[in-house]
Each structure stands twice: as structure tokens, then as C-alpha cells.
Amino acid sequence: MDVYEDPATWTARPARPRWQLALRFAGSVVWFPVVCVLWAATAAVFFVLGLFGDAITPFSDTFEGRFLNATGRTLGCVARLASWCVTWPELRHEGDVAYYKARVDKAVAKRTALASAPAEPNKPKPPSEVAIPLRAYRGVGGWYVAEVALAQGWELRPTDENKEVRLWWAAASRVD
Question: Which residue from 144, 82, 67 is spatially nearest to 107, judged by alpha carbons?
Fold first, then answer.
């Protein structure tokens, strides 16, 4: 196993103050629907522009790719407007190590089941590389994700532990 950072830094995040989470949750209740409407409106605008863009595509080799990249970047930026939002489970279980351990166990087990499933004909292969987001392991740290994943056959990939832990299913490279 290659460790891309010092495992001592992969510890649990300190519990955030309850009052701060309550304020963020209250703001989330108001702000998140606004972001959803803004995202849907932006997607609708890009859809309409895409209909007109179909007339340009036959004459340009790069228009379609650039248009899709611009669409993805813009929708990603709109979605990031809600990155500070707090969900109800986060508010209720902040600092609860057992809850976060169960959450990590469930997330890794789900991805292991998907990755280890046999490939079906005429269907895409199961995912071989996944990322476990910080929200899933905030209370236990990224190193716990690595321990659970390594025990189930995953390998670590270069990762930014402050955002996510990236894993790769080693059995995916085998040809049966």
C-alpha cells in the first residue's frame, strides 16, 4: 500500500459548535431551495442554447466539446453555492463517532458490492475507482476509511483527504 500523505494527519475533524451548525442548518433550509431553482434555471438555459447550438455543431469541430465543458463547469459552480449547507443528520450526529463509523462502513460496503459484482454483457463495467466524500467520514477521519477499504480489497489513490478519499478496486484490472 502506498500512503500518499502522513496518516497521522488523517484524523477526525474537531466537532463543530452546535450553535454554528444550527445557524447553518437554518440558513440551509432557506438557501438550498434557492440553489436548486437556480441550478434548474441554468440547466434550462443551457438546454435551450444547446438546441440552437445543434445548428452550429455540423460546421465546428470544437463547439460541442466546449459547450459541454462550459455547461458542466457552470452547473458545478452553481451546485458549489450550497457547499456550506448542513443536513439534518449532520446537525444531529456531529461528534458521534459510532454514527460516522457506521456511515463509512455502509458506504465502503456498498461500493465494494458494486465493484465486485460480475460484469453483465452489454452493460458498463462496475466502477473501479470511487471517492468517499468528507461528509461521510468527518467524525472518524480519512484513515478509518482507508482501513475499512483496505480490509475489503481497495487500494488508496492519490487523494486530498480534506475533500475526499479516493479508492481503486484492484480486482478490476484482472481479466477472467
Answer: 144
